[in-house]
Amino acid sequence: MKNNTQLYFNSLANNYENLSNKGIWNLVRLLEKHTLLNYVKKKKFNKILELGCGSGYYTKYLTSFTKNKITCVDFSDEMLKNFCDSKVIKINQDIEKFKDNNIYDLIFCAGAIEFLKEPYSVFKNVSTMLSEEGSFIILVPRKNILAFIYKLFHKHNKVKINLFEKKDISNFCNINNLKISKVNKIFPFSHSFIINKIKI
After folding, report:
1. pTM for the complete prediction?
2. For residue 3, pLDDT beyond 50
3. Looking at domain 4-197, does it have CATH number 1.20.58.100?
């Protein structure tokens, strides 16, 4: 049975890209994209995993950073229907539960962790799938007044989201053999993190 968040995103799927490419939402996305893709530009990866890919906004950019197919995971089957690319393996699954036997040198998750009941579980699973030299890149809303407005907007649609401070992400990392290597604040209310494995 689908929860409120899945139902909400399924209901938006057909028009999601059009809505997100207009007005303030588009400006926010452009600022976030600039920071996130700067982390990986001019790099090539062997295996890429995207968690919470939605309708494929970042997917089309990530495919250019590898010669191999990338794996994209999302719990909204309707969102996954919105894009088709021969370089993409699409998996309809909750990212809290997703893990496989592949080892990835880039795991990317933008705008998904805040919707999870147990975001900790993503870090736990990532720690088993991330290569020793790999990077886990995430984007999450930080705690400020604009983020609380964002949270209230989703609450109006019966969708609960989490806001994060750096210490929250650091705690998730510390108990899963991961470390924060870089953090950036992105206007108006996001944090981006580069996370790597702790070498033993």
Report:
1. 0.94
2. yes
3. no
